[in-house]
Write a structure and sequence with these properties.
The complex is a heterodimer of chains A (511) and B (384). Chain A is of the alpha/beta class. The chains are: A alpha/beta (511), B mainly alpha (384). Chain A: It is a peripheral membrane protein.
């Protein structure tokens, strides 16, 4: 048996209210390419953050053994000193600086504080050669493509004498050719004896390059197996990624689904707001009936949030085309107030950035989207407003000492309730909920689910976007799958399970 | 007793700057040997600071939306110059001239608002450019000279007093206005309390309620009594009162005000909640332009001349007033009342130090320290 370069033993990491990692064991052999996979939120990134010292020693339980020595990293610098380098999904390069400057950022080739440019450039040339990148070291980062930037990141890692390279979704933003290059490069490094850990959703490429696969699910290690000796298939990995018990997580529901299509999206396409040649949404068709809860499943980058926001008053994207039908009649939402007027509400996936005015009170947040309800000729009836806010507060059980409390002081679950309450106050017919339970604890999740069920029972139509497949399976009557901006499936509850969803969600990548 | 203690600690935090203002007033009252609060000087403080208070109100709105306006001093100077041309050189009727000037101010605000809101250029840059543009245009309009004197009707806006029909030594009309104001205030408080009771909200206990009304009534009447001992109520004070009450109402009681706060607090969330963020930003700048014009008119009238140097550093006084008054540069926080208090803190400092004969050099330095101290106090207070 080959020597282990890394062993992470019984790693447990809790965030307030959430156990992100639960007794995880993770072993990597010297000189292999190790694939780490799991659903969004399974704990992959958290595990890598523990390893690289982003979550410092003492904030988690368990031990890390690297090269046979126990490590207690307090920050990223300490792990990098030992040769553990992580390349994040969002590249950490500075666009205005040159390739050479980026590679040696924080590690400048200097003598007595004066940078030795000749050495910097020569060293950069050597590194670029290693990663097969033929560009001028003095070129600015903003002038090279994403694929090349990814290679610069790897060159930067090499400059730190990397022993264990961790790549988080390295090919997510790359086209086929660039991905191919990158994977070949990893294989080349492997021949030279370097060890890498790769996180990816693209099963096909993982199977191609990796030697061992570890599957994480709900913060636990499910399986770890060698690819060659076990004849691993995509189907097996998918099954390991998703299989779990769903009972008792979801509240009971009174069904009240009518046959009329309350809201319909037809032939909906949109382009990236900055790169107007890049199609983000491609001919999307979907509908939701009265009282129905419809899910949208898709991996990160599939275009879920973009779809919701482009519908909601063109809040995302350029060159949007397609039709919207509300109650059978065609409508256009030229901006957010227009969408709200037509009875559509959108609860953003990021409540702090896009949902709440954090410096404002619970009351002011609750009434913001529909102030005219408590106003006469644009003059507020502040007493009426207090009454309405109080009634919403008790109806959806927001735990706060007072409705005058600033929302910044509330817990995540209660903040989410405020955002939901804000949209309930607009009395919508259609609610688009984008990751309504992200980052909140189990108890609060249950309450949010209950609220969603109640809304559906009142005859509201719900479109629910979520990265957590069990959540969609537990809540929805029907689930659309989205992959690279296209709807790849429309699956009724009875036929839906995690395997089928995952299959449809990754359809374009496997074909 | 605990209730009273809570009330006091709460209010110290809430009205920290009011308390500071009272402290500064008492300090200078002692240091100047009682000159600060003489009727003549109180009237002076109001008239000297009126144009800064007008600017501070507009600046408060700008800062609440998370922006800044560096051009207000130049715009005020430019409008003063234009008013000189319109009223002195062209001899237009005063009211026409004033309206044209306010309109021009609004157009200037629209010009800057356009670049900030619709072209997304940082307001710092747009108004820095505006500062240069309108200072330059001031010189162009005046051809480097001073235009004077203004017609009397125009000057009364900033330097005349309400006439007294009674002709007594003490200005009776002012006393009567004070009484009427306090009466209106009492009625307002009673109405608020009645609504609160109707909705069965929590109200302060009755003795405290009476105490509050008593204190404010006394303040109003002492103030008008002091004014009455000199020339009475200056017209510009009425303008200020209308602006303060009007803008306070807009910011607290209207959909527009709520949208401005929301926009400043979190522009993304506001936009996704249906606030027309660009339009709102645009109009806040239009408003600032109009108020800068009004400020320029008041200043020109007080000086009785349109000069190229008018409005120098007004923008910094206005920004300082807003910040001392509790505005936060991250946006979303601040009150009109705070801006007025902030302007008065700066105004009393100026006035008090001048009476004491402190040189302009030390005045600047001390004002700088007070500005820094006020904000530091606020930041530390919030972190507690």
């Amino acid at each position: 048996m080959a020597e282990m370069i890394l062993e992470m033993k019984s790693i447990t990491k809790t965030f307030p209210g959430v156990k992100a990692l639960d007794d995880v064991n993770f072993k990597v052999k010297q000189g292999e390419i190790h694939a780490l996979i799991g659903e969004n939120g399974a704990g992959k990134s958290t595990l890598m953050k523990v390893l690289s010292g982003v979550h410092p020693h003492g904030t988690y339980d368990g031990s890390i053994i690297f090269h046979g020595k126990e490590c207690e990293f307090k920050n990223i610098n300490e792990s990098e000193d030992l040769g553990i380098v992580i390349i994040h999904q969002e590249l950490a390069l500075i666009p205005e600086l040159s390739i050479a400057e980026n590679i040696f950022l924080g590690n400048e080739q200097a003598r007595k504080g004066v940078i030795d440019w000749n050495k910097t450039i020569t060293e950069t040339k050597k590194l670029l050669e290693k990663v097969g990148l033929k560009v001028d070291p003095q070129e600015q980062i903003k002038n090279i493509g994403v694929g090349q930037q990814q290679l610069v990141e790897i060159a930067k890692a090499l400059s730190k004498e990397v022993k264990l390279l961790i790549l988080d979704e390295p090919t997510a933003a790359l086209n086929e050719e660039d991905s191919e290059n990158l994977l070949n490069l990893l294989l080349e490094f492997k021949k030279q004896g370097m060890t890498s850990i790769m996180i990816s959703h693209k099963l096909k490429e993982l199977l191609k390059v990796s030697d061992t696969i570890t599957v994480l699910r709900d913060g636990q290690t499910i399986q770890s197996y060698g690819v060659k000796e076990n004849e691993v298939t995509e189907a097996r990995i998918i099954k390991d990624m998703v299989g779990r018990d769903l009972s008792n997580l979801f509240p009971d529901r009174t069904y009240n689904i009518k046959d009329n299509k309350v809201f319909e999206v037809k032939n909906w396409s949109a382009y990236h707001p900055l790169d107007t040649e890049k199609k983000i949404l491609d001919d999307v068709n979907l509908h939701v009936k009265q009282g129905e809860i419809v899910g949208i499943a898709g991996l990160m980058g599939a275009g879920r949030t973009e779809l919701a926001m482009s519908i909601f008053g063109k809040s995302y994207g350029k060159r949007i085309t397609g039709q919207l039908y509300k109650g059978g009649e065609e409508v256009t939402f030229k901006d957010v107030p227009d969408a709200v007027k037509h009875g559509v509400a959108y609860v953003s996936e990021n409540r702090k950035e896009y949902g709440l005015i954090l410096v404002d009170s619970v009351k002011n947040n609750l009434t913001l989207a529909n102030l005219t309800k408590v106003a006469n000729n644009n003059i507020l009836n502040t007493s009426q407003e207090v009454v309405e806010a109080e009634s919403l507060k008790s109806k959806i059980n927001i735990k706060t000492p007072s409705i005058q409390q600033k929302t910044i002081n509330l817990s995540g679950g209660n903040q989410q309730k405020v955002v939901l309450g804000k949209w309930m106050f607009t009395d919508p017919d259609v609610l688009i909920l984008d990751e309504p339970t992200r980052g909140i604890d189990v108890g609060a999740k249950f309450e949010i689910y209950k609220l969603i069920n109640e809304l559906a029972a009142q005859g509201k139509s719900i479109i629910m976007i979520s990265s957590e497949l069990p959540e969609l399976l537990g809540m929805c009557d029907r689930i659309y799958t989205l992959c690279e901006g296209k709807i790849t499936g429309d699956i009724p509850k009875e036929e839906a399970n995690q395997e089928t969803l995952m299959t449809y969600m990754t359809q374009n990548w496997r074909s | 007793m605990d209730g009273l203690k809570n009330l006091i600690t709460n209010n110290i935090r809430k009205f920290g700057m009011v308390i500071a203002l009272v402290g500064i007033v008492i300090l200078f009252q002692i240091l100047t040997g009682g000159i600060l609060l003489t009727p003549l000087n109180v009237t002076n403080i109001i008239m000297q600071n009126s144009y800064i208070i007008v600017l501070a109100i507009g600046m408060m709105l700008i800062i609440i939306t998370g922006e800044i306006d560096l051009s207000v001093g130049s715009v005020a100077a430019f409008i003063g110059a234009v008013s000189g041309v319109l009223l002195v050189t062209l001899d237009l009727p005063v009211i026409v001239g004033i309206l044209l000037c306010l309109l021009l101010g609004a157009i200037i605000g629209a010009w800057q608002g356009f670049w900030v809101a619709y072209v997304n250029i940082p307001s710092f840059i747009v108004t820095l450019a505006g500062m240069l543009i309108f200072r330059g245009l001031t010189l162009v309009v005046l051809e480097g000279r001073t235009i004077a004197p203004f017609p009397n009707g125009f000057r009364s806006l900033s330097s005349s007093f309400m006439p007294d029909a009674f002709g007594t030594e003490l200005h009776m009309l002012t006393i009567i206005i004070g009484v009427l104001l306090s009466l209106a205030y009492v009625l307002y408080e009673l109405r608020v309390r009645r609504t609160d009771l109707k909705y069965s909200f929590k109200t302060t206990s009755f003795p405290l309620f009476v105490l509050k009304i008593f204190i404010i009534t006394v303040v109003i009447n002492v103030f008008t009594f002091v004014l009455a001992q000199y020339e009475g109520i200056p017209y510009v004070l009425i303008v200020l009162l209308v602006l303060i009450l009007g803008y306070t109402f807009v910011m607290n009681k209207t959909v527009i005000g709520r949208h401005i706060y929301a926009l400043g607090g979190n522009i993304n969330a506001a936009q996704l909640s249906g606030v027309k963020t660009k339009k709102m930003k645009f109009w806040v700048f239009v408003n600032m332009g109009t108020l800068a014009a009004l400020s320029g008119l008041i200043f020109a009238g007080r000086l009785n001349a349109a000069t190229p140097q008018a409005g120098n550093l007004f923008e910094l006084d206005a920004i300082a007033a807003a910040v001392i008054g509790g505005a936060s540069f991250t946006g979303g926080v601040g009150t009109i009342f705070g801006a007025v208090i902030g302007a008065l803190v700066m105004g009393v400092l100026n006035n008090g130090m001048s009476i004491m004969g402190i040189g302009i050099d030390w005045q600047q330095a001390i004002k700088g320290l007070v500005l820094l101290g006020a904000v530091a106090f606020d930041v530390l207070n919030k972190n507690k």
